[in-house]
Write a structure and sequence with these properties.
CATH superfamily: HIT-like
Helix content: 10-25%
Number of helices: 3
Number of domains: 1
Shape: globular
CATH class: Alpha Beta
Number of strands: 5
Distance between the termini: 20 Å
Strand content: 15-25%
């Protein structure tokens, strides 16, 4: 069910539980600012989620409240995961769904990294 990205951060969301170690994940990368792990319901041969370690609902929330170090660290983590996963040569797609109309399902900012096959058009009609 899509979430309302204008609401305050809810630390009972699934990604907050993963960050606290209450739920497992298939970790790909972790540093002080970000965690990357395989999506449990992959939509491409490579489907990795990258999340900031801070409690941010959306890109606009993150860009407004995160420190410069958090923003740089998260952005670098996304690039590192793509490079380390050998996705750069073949190409990959980044996707961040924000709010109800975009279909955001978890109230914690996250970026999907898709790769491993041709990905088709930008939007389905």
């Amino acid at each position: 069910m899509p979430i309302d990205a204008t609401q305050p951060y809810d630390d009972s969301n699934i990604f907050a539980k993963i960050l606290r170690g209450e739920l497992p994940c298939n970790k790909v990368y972790e540093d002080e600012h970000a965690l990357a792990f395989h999506d449990i319901n992959p939509m491409a041969p490579v489907h990795i989620l990258v999340i900031p370690k801070g409690g941010y609902v959306s890109w606009d929330d993150f860009s407004e409240r995160a420190s410069d170090a958090e923003i740089a660290g998260f952005t670098r983590a996304v690039g590192k995961v793509a490079r380390d996963g050998a996705m750069v040569t073949q190409g990959y797609r980044l996707l961040a769904n924000i709010g109800k109309r975009a279909g955001q399902e978890v109230g914690h900012l996250h970026v999907h990294i898709f790769g491993g096959q041709p990905l088709g058009p930008m939007l389905a009609k």
